[in-house]
Amino acid sequence: MPAMEDKRIVILTGAGVSAESGLGTFRDKDGLWTKYDLNDVATPEGFARNPVFVHDFYNKRRQNLVDATPNAAHHALGRLETEFPGEVLVVTQNIDRLHEMGGSKNVLHMHGEMLKSRCDICMHVIYWEGDLSLEMQCEQCGAAGAMRPHVVWFGEMPFYMDDIQMELDRCDLFVSVGTSGSVYPAAGFVSQVRHRGKAHTVELNLEPSEGSAMFHDSVLGPATKVVPAYVDELLANGW
Ligand code: OAD
After folding, report:
1. Is the pTM above the cut of 0.90?
2. Residue 96, CB half-sphere, CA atoms under 13 Å: how many?
3. For a FRET experiment, which of 12, 74, 106, 140 has its CA 20 to 30 Å from that of 98?
């Protein structure tokens, strides 16, 4: 049994952790994918077909996100990283910056970051809080019309997969927060961890996710309630 300082925790988060900060989820009632066809706004093909529409969609979401503030769940996860003697890694599917604002430093954005933009030609990435348009030029290669949101669309490879796989393979505790478990590869992380047989797995969500039966424990409720309570318990008594 490793000492606490040698233990490693991986927290996977999804849109549910940011819901109480006013950022919508995707598949709940009133979720983004009930209003938009993801093929139009979240695929490279959709962007190629109608880049102005896609820029407009992300420009509106970016402004919501710039104004959003972290909630008690983000702060609790930040506190966990500070106070837990071992390693804590947040792997998030979210493209907001609320984990960082809540104090988490060790964060991998596997679906990218909305407040960054990337040149489709030379791959140069910039921090960008403003609107994107076809008139914008890449500051590195000078290409016009090639800047796109630095997010992962369906059909594209998520970021940091090698690092994430390594951490899933050596973690002692895997916690999933606020995700429906319907988008791979993130939806498959729990079965990968279970397959190894060594780590404890916990789900914290408003309702059972699609992979709920795979977890050892499941705590249901809003993230701002269940995450701080879970972090308190974890820091006091382990798992
Ligand atoms: P979903 O919208 O699929 O799922 C959100 C989950 O959060 C649901 O299970 C809700 O029950 C739960 N939830 C809602 N409010 C909550 C609250 N206050 N507290 C706790 N849980 C709450 O969002 P994701 O699972 O994040 O990808 O979706 C995964 C990916 O699908 C996204 O990253 C995005 C999307 O298409 C891309 O666009 C590539």
Report:
1. yes
2. 27
3. 140
